[in-house]
Amino acid sequence: MDLLLIRPDPGNERFGLGPFFRVEPLGLEYVAAAARARGFRPAIIDERFHRWRWAWLARTRVPVVGISCMHALEYDRVLDLARAIRRVSPRTFIVVGGHAAAAHAAPLESDDIDAVCMDDGEIVFPALLDAMSRKQDPATVPGLRVRAGSGWIATPAPAERPGLDEVPAPARDLVAAYRNRYHCLLFKPVWLVETARGCPYRCTFCSVWSLYDRSFRERSIDAVVEDMAQAGENIFIVDDLFWHHPERSLALARALIRKGVRKRWLLVQTRTDLVCRHADLLEAWRPLAQDFDIFFGLEAPSDAGLGRLSKDATIMESVEAARIARSMRYGVTGNFVIDPDWDEDNFRELWAFVAAHELGRAGYTILTPLPGTDLHRDHAALRRDEPWFKYDMHHLLWEPRLGARRFFELYAETWRRSILNLSGEKRWTDWARQVHPTQIPYLMRVLRRTQRMMRAEAYLAEHDDDAPRRDGASRSIQRPAASATTLPSMPRETTSTPASPRAAAAASAATAPAAPGSPASPER
Ligand code: B12
Ligand code: SF4
Fold it and tell me: Rounded CA gap, 102 and 68, in Å?
């Protein structure tokens, strides 16, 4: 059976660094490899680079299309795409998977989608294809939400989480045509590698730990060495928590060195407390790349701020981790979260912290209740039904303490203090000196585009726009009675939204189908 897997164009990339980090759809490549191992014939289309021909779809009437939905900001785009496919090829079975889909499927439960993958795609998708080729009901396949009759039902959760080595290596050949387009800033082409999946921590704004029930799974050292050796010169390791398991991380570094693997650029994401406890790991890994960047979730400039986000780390660890990493010539990047409840002093505290510890390479996002997070559950009563594209962490979803205008003035000022500001300490000529002349036009595009993040008016224009709300109601912005982070005992939707999708699937598998958007559906 032929199948088509699509990475949609996310659409909203007006703020943030999304356009400068265009990376391969690794999740789809794993799904494709697993399907191929069962004898199916997958193809991948990356819509960010490929205007494909609908006539082809109408002619081939491919029986199954899979669409990835990685971020909440993509829900509406995915729905549009599914609708268009349905129109051209009504009998095609349309399944959506990806992080945001699995973390919170409700927005996708429409007539234009047949199933949503709620668990590991490499396991669920081939099982679905097997069932379809045997003409069995998709509702018999574990790990899905499926459209059934007048509503949607959850199928049982798969029995247990499989080891990551049980699935084939990603089908990178299916994106070979796009490879030269994949890049992270100036590093091009870029490969994505996953060595482990999940995270045992519990940050309130993050949907990773709840999706995987705080589990952490690793690929074997041999499998990672093989994958890294075959990947190209520039690698973004997508693990949410790199170096989490120190003994294995050390053994992996040694195995890579033994194999002679050395890359031009590596990027990993990890925690500051881990780096403070295991400087030895940084030492072991440093020889593996000429340039090596670490992305830290710095989040807040005070312990109280970190506490409110359940970060389970301290600002001393932020400072010390940056020092350790820099001492070994790692690039230190990171992100701070800005709370709509902040007052002027909170902004000043952040600026002072960034300046004191020279963290100008950090980025800033607005605290956003992303679906699948604790924050999303806690804010059920406060959120407005804003369109999904605004869930990009650069829009306000409720009125901030300082009022939108003042908030965005200070938010823009925060960005102006970053090294991206062309009128700041680092001028474009300084940037240009660091790159090859052929890269200058691209660099200029990046820098020019990021300048809008330093203009309050750019954010305000979208805050005050007339984009229709999802509930169709008029736009009257109320400041919440309680603030974002000082909500003491907001009732949690624990009865309708169990702690994790796996628990949700198990719970709702036993209940009657809920009509899309009905109070019983987990959306709102
Ligand atoms: C790579 C990445 C990016 C990249 C590239 C994104 C892109 N546009 O391609 C960059 C750096 C640009 C990025 C940006 C952002 N990201 Co991002 N990103 C990731 C990251 C680290 C890895 C994704 C990945 O490749 N995982 C490895 C693969 C193997 O897993 P997977 O994709 O989930 O695929 C599996 C399943 O989901 C499923 N599956 C996937 N697709 C499909 C399709 C079908 C049909 C089926 C059946 C199954 C299936 O099967 C796969 C195998 O099991 C994730 C973290 C994570 N754990 O997912 C965050 C993550 C997805 N990002 C997140 C966020 C918040 C953002 C930003 C908003 C952050 C910001 N500060 O601005 C921006 C938004 C950018 C934009 N405008 O689009 C959040 C999403 C939260 C949410 N609920 O929306 C995550 C979960 C990080 C986090 N800790 O919270 N991101
Ligand atoms: S933000 Fe990072 S440390 Fe916190 S739960 Fe998510 S992945 Fe884990």
Answer: 10
